[in-house]
Amino acid sequence: MKILVLNSGSSSLKYQLFDMTDESVLAKGLVERIGLEGSLLTHRPANKEKQVINTDIPDHTTAIQLVLDALTNPDYGVISSMDEIGAVGHRIVHGGSVFTETTIINDEVVAEIEKLIPLAPLHNPPGIAGIKACRSILPNVPQVAVFDTAFHQSMPEVSYIYGLPYEYFEKYGIRRYGFHGTSHRYVSHRAAEILGEPLEDLKMITCHLGNGSSIAAIDKGKVMDTTMGFTPLEGLMMGARSGNVDPAIISFIMEKENLTIKEVDELLNKKSGFLGVSGVSSDLRNVEEAASEGNYRAQLAIDMFYQKIVRFIGAFVAEINGIDVLVFTAGIGENSPQMREAVCDKLEFLCLFIDKEKNKFRGEEREISRPGSKVKVFVIPTNEELMIARDTATLVK
């Protein structure tokens, strides 16, 4: 079976086509600037030259048709016709409390995802646009929704209810949902597979560290807690997001700076984190470079990030009463040996020890714990698209 995986953004569309007989990627690509001037498709077929197609792409339906045309093109396509596509898997960011697992899409499911737009106003609408476009172009092909929030729905109530009047949870669904669930699920399953042990026998902390970052505590294969909350703003300091702050700071800044709700929301989501503290960039690589040149604020931002990772790992180890496995993934987790070493050095009280020579690499799957370490430490490149493809194939079959 061949599975097309789509990740729809407001003005972009990422895709991968998998052959599930061996889980190989036949092609992948990115449509950029949908509905804007200068729109284009970058198509990367396996074992063929990359193709860049510059054309007007006014909406997601046009974008998806362009992708399908590229996949079936006689010169740079990888399938002979659209009939070879057995199903389409859609990444949907927010499934709320309604969707706790991967779901076959029908009219009722689309309606429920639309109801969740207030919880994810930036992310769910483009996901819905991708679904509707695919259903119109491929009406006889099964469509499947895979939710970023679903893996975290195993959290107990004590972990997801806020210390607010309970009625706000009942009326508006205000609770902690967690995000990056597909990534946390993939790397936790992969770590158990590498160890040759059932996931249900392991206590694990998974660290998805990138421009957006979250950590999850997984016990017996279920998420017990995670750092992101009602939105992806909660938790760790990130590229441009503040992470946890005293809520009273918000009204204080609004009053002092005469900011609107929209402006303070933009401040917390787009002007804080590495960018806000360092004044250099939201990209940790640029911040590290500035720190190496003696920039005090850049080094402060790095130290704050490391400290908060250690803080959450320590809290989660206590919460699940132990740790067998620690996993680093995503852009920073996979590519920053300095971060991994700095964090693990603070965790030696857990009898967690890494081989600092083995740790000197980027972007590979590797165990970095030393012999004798009571905690296994892995770097596992995340593969959310493969997880979506697997879920889609399993459900359709």
From TrEMBL:
EC number, UniProt record: 2.7.2.1
Reactions catalysed, as given in the entry: acetate + ATP = acetyl phosphate + ADP
The gene coding this protein: ackA
InterPro entries listed in its UniProt record: Ac/propionate_kinase (IPR004372), Aliphatic_acid_kin_short-chain (IPR000890), Aliphatic_acid_kinase_CS (IPR023865), ATPase_NBD (IPR043129)
Residues at which ATP binds: 14, 208-212, 283-285, 331-335
Name this polypeptide is given: Acetate kinase
Binding positions for substrate per the UniProt entry: 91
Any Pfam family the entry gives: Acetate_kinase
Major site of localization recorded for this protein: cytoplasm
Family: Belongs to the acetokinase family.
GO molecular function, one term: kinase activity
Keyword terms, alphabetized: ATP-binding, Cytoplasm, Kinase, Magnesium, Metal-binding, Nucleotide-binding, Transferase
Superkingdom, taxonomy of origin: Bacteria
Assembly, per entry: Homodimer.
Positions bearing the site annotation: Transition state stabilizer: 180, 241
Signal sequence bounds: none
UniProt cofactor note: Mg(2+). Can also accept Mn(2+).
Catalytic machinery residues: 148 (proton donor/acceptor)
